[in-house]
Design a protein that fits this description.
Layout: E1 2-6, E2 10-11, E3 18-25, E4 32-42, E5 52-59, E6 67-75, E7 78-85, E8 89-98, E9 104-114
Antiparallel strand pairs: 1-3, 2-9, 3-4, 4-7, 5-6, 5-8, 6-7, 8-9
């Protein structure tokens, strides 16, 4: 399992910063379905529940159509989705989150070296 912490998320409104962590499974990622688990917390580490989280996956090179998925909340501040990676290579994913108070954030992370199926 791969875990990364992304801090200093770009927010579209002024508010306390949020932290986004993510896990990708399986490791290494392969062409086909992968599971992405997102955790949203405030700076004190408190889970941010009730957000709407969608994912947009793109290849790192031009010419490929993006893939999309919606994440379901599986626990307070934990969101999970299956997204289909359609080709081997390097991908980046943009997590789009709308919080219950209306704040939004977009955070990008990479999935490197997706292996052939």
């Amino acid at each position: 399992m791969w875990l990364a912490v992304v801090q200093g998320c770009r927010e579209h409104t002024t508010a306390a910063p949020l932290n986004l962590t993510y896990e990708v499974s399986p490791v290494p990622a392969r062409v086909g379905d992968v599971t992405i688990t997102i955790k949203l917390t405030d700076v004190s580490g408190k889970a941010v529940a009730g957000a709407r989280v969608t994912l947009e996956g793109n290849m790192s090179h031009a010419g490929m159509a993006p893939v999309f998925a919606e994440a379901k909340e599986i626990g307070p501040g934990r969101y999970q989705s299956r997204i289909t990676l359609t080709m081997a290579g390097d991908w980046y994913v943009i997590a789009h989150a709308t919080l219950p108070d209306g704040r939004t954030l977009d955070q990008q992370f990479e999935i490197k070296e997706v292996a052939p199926a």
